[in-house]
What does this fold into?
Amino acid sequence: MPRSGSMVASPPWTPGASASSCMPCETSPAPSTRSPTMNAHSESAGVALKAARSVVWTALTEIVARTASPIVMVVLARILAPADFGVVATAMVAISFSQMLWDAGLNKALVQTREAPDEAANVVFWTNLLLATVTYGALFAAAPWLAAFFRSPPSGPILRVLGLQMIIAALASVQHGLCVRDLDFRRLFWIKLVTAFLPGMLSIPLALRGFGAWALVIGALSGQTLNLALLWARSPWRPSLSYSPRQARRLLGFGVWVLAEAFGGWLILWGDSLLVGRFLGVHHLGVYRTGSMLVSVFFGLALNPFLTIAYPMLSRLQSDVPALIRGFRTVNRLVIAIAVPLALGLLATAHDMAAALLGNKWEGLDFVLGALGFATGMTWTVGLNGEAYRAIGRPDINTKFMYGQLLVFVPAYALGAHLGIKALVIAKLVVFLLTVPIHAFVFAKVTGVSRFYLWEQSHAPLLAAALMVAGILAVRAGFVGLPPGALLALSIGAGGCVYGAGVWSLDRSFLWELKAMACHALGGKAKTPATIC
It folds into this structure.
């Protein structure tokens, strides 16, 4: 979500922290004569450097995950029908809702907590496992009713089997959460590297042998099972037969707001799919969800590394508000510089991308891809707001704001679904764009940053991206008749060059700051613009 104000002259990523293990250590600190202020600044510097270096590992993790996912998806989409993806999507609507319930916001609370991490981890593990088991039982019983709701009989058995991933995820949640809390993304990278391609290695042969939607189910469960095994093998933490009611009350007190926010987020992210599946059928749902997933892949590959480290980094800086704001500004400005050109680029190249990747049987995918890509990119300009609110211990702000949005989202989605898939996509685009300035206003009010911080950080990328679109349109006009794949490659190359030149001309100081961040992340130094890492 958002960033703030103009960029500071020197980045907050300063040397001074060592990598930590996945399980937080609880050693007794040596006596110190340093003042609390000096200790706070030292901790802030250490966390900032650790976060900067974590970006490298989270970026590598996303590259592996997001490279494997689209490759597998494209291959499977050329083998399977849109309806096969639609059947699995109906199951995922229910499973995503159930996963939100069993997590109850406790993993976010575990990352945020600063006291007794081992005791808190035990509470989170047993609570998550109990809630996941109960939720899966309810989902198993409700499967026939849900299949009837979507008018898709095959969805019932698939829902019962695919729902097992909730219990698998609950068993791995604490090990993963402790790694995130400790910014140990290197460990998570190696686990992701091993597990990224397993679903495809199973799903593609099964799809070729006629397993249909079940090929997707078996692949997904196999990947999660291997992920569970590796997390347990690589993490030193193990649950014990103890449970602290005091910790449970404290964590649940934080988690209830995260859960309420997650429910609002589920309505925003999955409510449209629920309506498409109900009113337009599994074929249209397959097209819609595949377009949405491709958009998620593109933005996840580019931006999830920053979102992943933002919350634990900002949580560690919660006692040093100026450092927290500086860190937020730096990360948010970088997110905007990536999200804006990606949004406009998807809008300009969606037709060629859909044709090149999936072929002609996915009619309507280009419209979904372009419109949702543009909407998603624009909302990423305020995408770090929620992480900042949670980091300062105010998850209620994002929750309240989200439920205000739902007063507009729900009727807009419902009306669009009755009018057709294009109407729904347009409705989603409009309401997403309308929320961006409101998000920025609320964030400025809460944090005290400039009311114009979003414009200050985004005007240069917006202008450079507009020039980029002009370059892409010129390429398309000059090379009419080229195959979609070749035209797409030319458009991406030309657009990237124009955008880079635009940013260099309009906001050169940002590029120097980005270079300094990269040097810190890689362990080098960058003292001046002329310094070579």
Observations:
- The chain has two domains: 56-279, 317-533.
- The two ends are 30 Å apart (CA to CA).
